[in-house]
Specification:
CATH topology: Alkaline Phosphatase, subunit A
Number of domains: 1
Number of strands: 7
CATH class: Alpha Beta
Shape: globular
Number of helices: 4
Strand order of the largest sheet: 2-1-3
CATH superfamily: Alkaline Phosphatase, subunit A
Largest sheet: 3 strands, parallel
Helix content: 25-40%
Oligomer: single chain
Strand content: 15-25%
């Protein structure tokens, strides 16, 4: 982040999971790399509207930002993290299906962010990736605190808006 700031970027971090909650020592580490970092309980995992809340927050900040200022945004979207069962009508437990529903929800919210960002900032380079995958019963495993191919295979895509 310091390198980006040295060449004129304003750096923003909008976190979702607890690693971005600056109320703890651990939660202050990663956000501390950014000039501006934000976390709010409404951005967190158990909140079904967390991605919408994050995007709404960023859009408000974007409206106030100098259009000539170069920006670097790191957005930690946690809606696909557990719990995610509530993205399925009648869902009672996390599953591959609820994970897929959460991804579809996030795609809609990111679409709003990308449209607004492109309209106000022009061509923008985007990197979308995860920090880990999640097991939903593969080999009897659940969630992501383990060494399993479903956890260590990380999706990645980059593109220009």
């Amino acid at each position: 982040m310091e390198g980006l700031e040295r060449v004129g970027y304003d750096t923003w971090c909008v976190g979702g999971v607890a690693f971005f909650d600056k109320r703890s020592d651990l939660g202050r580490v990663f956000p501390g790399y950014f000039k501006h970092s934000y976390w709010n309980p409404s951005f967190s995992c158990p909140v079904k509207e967390s991605a919408a809340n994050q995007v709404d927050f960023i859009l408000r900040k974007l409206q106030k930002a100098d259009p000539e200022q170069k920006l670097f945004l790191y957005l930690n979207v946690d809606a696909i993290h557990y719990p995610n069962y509530f993205y399925l009508n009648g869902g009672t437990h996390d599953s591959l299906e609820s994970h897929g529903a959460a991804l579809r929800y996030v795609d809609g919210e990111l679409g709003r962010l990308f449209d607004a960002w492109k309209a106000t900032r022009g061509d923008t380079f985007v990197i979308c990736c995860s920090d880990h995958g999640t097991c939903y019963g593969e080999d009897g495993c659940q969630f992501h605190g383990i060494n399993h191919p479903a956890v260590t295979t990380v999706p990645y895509k980059h593109f220009t808006l």
